[in-house]
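[step 3/7] fold_predict: job queued, chain A
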Amino acid sequence: MAGDRDAQWTEQVALARRGDPAACEALYARFARTVHAIALAHVGAQHADDVTQEVFSSVFASLGSLRDSAAFPAFLCTAARNAARDVLRARSRAPKTVPADELCEPGPSPAATAEQTELAAKVLATIRRLPDAYHETLLLRLVGGLSGPEIAARVGMTHGSVRVNLTRGMQLLRPLLQEAGLP
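[step 4/7] structure written:
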């Protein structure tokens, strides 16, 4: 079953290389949550949407340099990390810093309340206090909704390494959430 899905997106990569807009849309739909979760892990909600859009624009423009369509998820995740680092570098040169309470901003959904947004900002800030190896993996799982094997395939790690990062990350996160009075 997973092989069929992999074959589907590798075919979509081949079509996207030839400029097929439907293939680009399908790839975006399949991988946008992954890229967004990586962006959240590194730059917070304030810049995550912009990073996500930038990543897909640059990846689609450079698909010709990708030798193996099967490497697309790892290629995309690397591009997301690099784009996030670029944002961090630009922010570090800028005189203004972003306070922790501004890491999340209200989403466009009218159903989201200020309390939910504040809670999400606190949880995200708490997750981002973890070592890098853990917060990206946790956000791919918790925000991106990916399973351990899916995370491994997309970021180029072994499933065992992902499992260890998720387990250790959750062990470190629980007391931090309790300390912050979060659920």
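[step 5/7] annotate
The mean pLDDT is 83.
The chain has two domains: 1-96, 114-183.
exit 0
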